[in-house]
Amino acid sequence: MSAPLPQAPRVRGWCPGVRRPMETGDGLLVRVHPPGGVLGADEARLVAEAARTFGNGLLDVTARGNLQIRGVRPATYPALLARLDEAGLVEPEGDGPNRLTLVSPFSGIDPAERLDARPLAAAVEEAADVRDLPGKVFVAVDGGGIMPLVGSGADIVLTAVAGPTPIAVGLAAPEGPRWIGATRAGDAPEVVRALLQGFAALRRDGRTGVGRIRDLDEAQRAVLAARVALAPRDAPPLRPACPRTGLVPSHGGTLALLAALAFGRCNADQLARAADWSRAHGSGEIRPSPSRGLVLPGIPDPGIILREAEAAGFIVDPADPRLAVSACPGAPSCGAGRVPAPSDAAPLAEAASHLLAAGLSLHVSGCPKGCAHPGRADVTLVGQEDGCYGLVPGGTARDPAVLRLSLDEVMTRLREAPTPGELARALREPAL
After folding, report:
1. What angle, 0 to 180 degrees and rounded to 10, lies between the N-to-C axes of helices 218-225 and 188-204?
2. For residue range 349-402, what is the model confidence (pLDDT) as tens digits?
3. Hey, CA dihedral for 368, 373, 376, 381, is it positive or negative?
4. Of the candidates 154, 37, 178, 170, which has an alpha carbon nearest to the alpha carbon of residue 104?
C-alpha cells in the first residue's frame, strides 16, 4: 500500500513544494526549489527522469526560478518524494516559505554585478528564519548585474548600489518597491529579519490579514520601515532589462546561454538534453531563470549548443514575439484556470508581434491569481468563466477589467492597433 499523501492546507498564501504537492487540473503539482537557484547537471537529469517516470513528462519554470513537475499521480508520489529526497532536493519541513530568497541566475558569473548575491542570500536565509510567515513571502537579493530583480514581486528587495552603504532596501508596494534606505552588506540579513518579524507581528496581532507586504497600507509599511535604522537613500537607478534569450558574457572569457522556453513550459527530454549540454559544453550547472528559461554557464564555444537548443524547441531568437508574453499553465493543467492560457497566448503573440517588437508587454492569465507575472503589464488578459478575457490595461491580474472580450476580439484589436500608444485607446472603445 502506498504511503498517504500529505494534506496541503486549503488556505490562501501557501505554496506547493515537494513535501506538500498541490492537487491541480492535470494531477499533483510538485515544485522543486533548487538550493541557491542552481542544479547540477546530474540533479537536472534526475528531475527530468522523475518528471517522465512519476508525472506526465511536463515541467514549468516558474517566475521565481523553481521547477514544477506536473501530472504526478497519487500512486507514484511517494516514490517521487523518496527519489528527490535522496538527491537533497526536498525543502526543509515547516509552514513558511520553501525558499526565502531569489537571486539572478547570473549571480557569481556576471561581470556587470556589483557583488555576488549568493553569499548574501545564504546569510539572509540563515538569519531570517521567522515563524508565522506566509508561504508566498520572498526576498530578492539583486547584485546589480545584468538581470534586475526590482520587478520580481518580492516582498523585500535588496539591491547592490554604489556608496558606503551599498545595499538599498525596498519594501513591496503596489506601484513598485518603496525604497526605505540603505545598509551595509553585513547588516542586511538582520535588517531583513527585523522587517519580516514586523510583518509577522502585524499578522499575529490582528492588525492586518494580508499575506504579502505589497498589500499593506502605507501606514503599516511605515511601521515596518521604522523597525530598522538605515542610511538615507534615493531609489536606485533603473537598469536595462535583461536579454530574454541568447548568449551573455560571463567571467573567465566564457559565455552563459539563456535558453528561453515558450511561457515557461518544457518537457523532460528538453531538461535532460540541457543537462547533457551543460555537462559536455559548460560548467555542469543549470540555473532556472525568473525569466522562465534555463541558464547554462561556462560555454566556451556557443555554435553547437545554440543549434542544438533551437532544434530541441528552446527559443534562441531574441525577436521571437512569445518572449514578450507571460502565460500561466491555464486550463486544463491548472485547476484554477478558466482558459487555456498557453494555447491562447501563442496566437495572441503573433497578432501583437508588431506591438511586442515596439516594447509592449502582454500577460495572459488563466485566472485572477496572476501566477505567471505578479507585476503590471501593458496589457493583462484574465480568463473568465465563459472563456472570454477580462482586459486590464497597465495593471495586474488582480485589478478590475475595463472590457470583457472573446479571444478573437482581443486578437482583432491587437492586430489593428498600429502602435502601443494607439492600443490603449482601442482597448477602451467598443469595436465598430
Report:
1. 140
2. 999 999 999 999 999 999 999 988 878 899 999 999 999 999 999 999 999 999
3. negative
4. 37
pTM given for the model: 0.91
Structural domain contains residue 235: no
Cell of 308: 542544438
- Answer for the pair 329, 342: CB distance below 8 angstroms, yes or no: yes
Q: Which amino acid is at 58?
A: L
Find the domain containing 351 and state its range. 322-428
Nearest to 211 by CA among 7, 398, 432, 406: 398
Whether residue 306 is found in the same domain as residue 334: no
User: For the chain, how many residues are written?
Assistant: 432
Claim to verify: residue 332 and residue 355 sit in the same structural domain: yes
Q: Is residue 14 part of a domain?
A: no
Both 68 and 171 in one domain: the answer is no
- Distance separating alpha carbons of residues 18 and 255, to the nearest angstrom: 32
Residues 357 and 338 in one domain: yes
Among 276, 271, 281, 291, residue whose Cα is nearest residue 106: 291
